[in-house]
Amino acid sequence: MSNRNYNTLPSDPEVQPINSPTRPRLHRIVGAVLLVLAGSVIAGTTIMLVAKNEPAPQNVIMMISDGFGPASEAYARQYHSWDQGLGYKAMLPLDTILVGSSRTQSSSSMITDSAAGATAFACAQKSYNGAIGVDSKGVPCGTVLESAKLHRNMLTGLVVTSRITHATPASFSAHVLGRDSENDIASQQIGFNPLGRTVDLMFGGGACEFTSNLTEHSCRLDTRDLFEEAKESFGWTVKRTREDFDEIEPSDAELPLMGLFAPDHMSYEIDRDSSKQPSLKEMAKKALEILNVASKKQGTGFFMMIEGSRIDMAAHTNDPAAHVHEIYEYNQAILAVKEFVDANPNTVVISTSDHETGGFTIGRQIGKDYPEYKWNPEVIKRVQHSSQYLAGIWRKEIDASDEDYSAKVKEFLVTVILRDGLGIDNPTDEELERLMSWKGSNKWTEELAYDLTDMVSRRALLGWSTHGHTAVDVNLYAYGHQSEKLRGNHENTDIGDFIVEQLDLNLEDITERLKSHDSFKEFGVNNIENSNTTTNKHKYHHL
């Protein structure tokens, strides 16, 4: 790990982060003597060491802003500064804890996917695109979550806005050759794993991976009901609704606890019905409270991974409105976590991205004329729903339309989809013709969403180069106990190494336990290709 101690942050004490009433307060950390250190994570603040006989158990919070690149941060900052009239010096909560950057390539490509990216954090090893908790040769690798549980008796948690079986949370809690094996991932997560149950709390979406294929909305290929198996075999408490979530009292919550609040991914923030689904910030706050109470009772710390999953998914669709709302919600979660760190000094939070998605740019040339140096945030302000949501509505409307297709459906398109949904009241004839031609085209609804997002992005003068990932260094943020060690530019595997160092973990021992188990005997380099993981065309790659 690099011990470079330089700061990448501005030191203007007048700069205030968005939605944060004050600069971060003095951060007390357990130590042996009183002294003041300069050059903390927040430039211009001081860190006070307060004498205490026994250090408190340490907590590590790993936050992952999936698909979030540097341009996306500037975009979100500029948009919210404009929207709230805060001026150019305004900062997002993430801006206040910037310490460096992370390099992202995988072992199989200079452009990583989320599976290899998360495995680098979890196992502190590079692996191939599609790998879930296995190394570059397809051999299971011990994760920081598993070692924290088994070697340090720490409590562990996963909080996401995707399916809980999706690539990022899976890489910390399961071992499969390919990310599409989500049925197997779900089984391992509840405890059918050579290591036994290693996760104490799971909040997110993806209930479909746990329900029998005899039931509605199931994603399973078999009749297993993993919710019932989780309760009967491992003592899980299962929550499925917003009401269930609200009723959870952190002071007496029973672990292990699983709250899956959507059949598939959680809704985009811009579409979310708060009466039906909790937000990322709400889930993160309650999860922290639950594990904090429980860990203090047993005298240990905890490890938690929190992911803003849908930042990435909005970027895959090139949806600038959904993208900025997801980024803003992630920043609200960051703010909540920073407050937790301030109240629990022997805690460190690390936040970074696994990769950038979309090749996003602020500024776009439309046509051959030299472009103006501007972009139009008012276009984003008018958008009321994600393009994915609107594409689904439009698809249903055109599929159900009768013989009077042109007149009836065109009015619905112009008023409900474009004007009310996207805030666009000046569609061109070419745009209308392209959207109207969808009936009978047999194209994916996702492709329809692409057309809608392009209408918004062109008017806002925002650019995208791909619906996939790109190879850029992503920002690295850290706050709290020994976070200064992460200053500078790092490989993504260094973040895993940092967590190992902080918690005194032994990933090699976990790896040896996994390798010796019969269920992993068939794993290895010869079976990687058969698992369909050598391609980027995963079943859910566009999500």
Automatic annotation (TrEMBL):
Transmembrane segments: 29-51
Keyword Transcription: no
SUPFAM superfamilies (UniProt xref): Alkaline phosphatase-like (SSF53649)
Region (Disordered): 1-21
Lineage: Eukaryota, Fungi, Fungi incertae sedis, Mucoromycota, Mucoromycotina
Enzymatic class: hydrolase
Keywords for this protein: Hydrolase, Magnesium, Membrane, Metal-binding, Phosphoprotein, Transmembrane, Transmembrane helix, Zinc
Designated name of the protein: Alkaline phosphatase
Family: Belongs to the alkaline phosphatase family.
Catalytic activity: a phosphate monoester + H2O = an alcohol + phosphate
EC number: 3.1.3.1
Biased composition (Polar residues): 1-10
Cofactor: Zn(2+); Mg(2+)
